[in-house]
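Protein modeling request. Please complete all fields; requests missing the sequence field cannot be processed.
Requester role: graduate student
Desired output: 3D structure, token encoding
Chains: 1
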Amino acid sequence: MTQALNTSMKLLIDFFPIILFFITYHQAGAITENTAIGQLFDSSQPEIIVATMLATAVAIISSFIQVGGYWLKNRSVEKMHIFSLLLITILGGITIAFGDPAFIQWKPTVLNWVFAAAFLISQYVGKSSLVHRMMSSQISLPDAVWKRLNLSWVVFFIISGLANIYVAFYYAVELDEKTRMDTWVNFKLFGLLGLTVIFVIAQAFYLARYMTPEEDANQDGNNA
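Delivered output (224 residues):
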């Protein structure tokens, strides 16, 4: 259970650029009006376009900081972090260049579905699945349980990607563009974060049934 919670914390740290995106988007008006940053944008552009472009730029910069900080701490960078950085740089760059929020709105879905594909492929290619590689040093599980656990992550990533598409492009289409964009930005942080927390808690309870008192004591000792 402890390892599952540690894994969840690692995932939540990955929300750092998303949190800054959220804050910047909702405070874009104050930022552009009270700082020199406002001179970088065309005042004739719609409010949500300026807010999205500014928030996207902050998310790209924070992603570079995130990866750089991880490297300084561990002297290595995970492939998924590199892919996420490339994805937000490319899609975010297109959003900024063309002033079209749709590109950055696709980013969570593409990222989640790539994760889903990676976890699914690892189930059948290689000696062990991604979940097994991440957690096997902390808990011993039957092979069938490792497979179910890995597939549960696949399903989670697929559902998260579909949920993002729905909120971004199909939810409340009768509303004005700003309201819909505000809704997506809020969902990008609270909705996806909420889904992650719920899933990880459910996974922790699922793993608890396979934990022996000795394993639980060893994990508590390792994390003391």
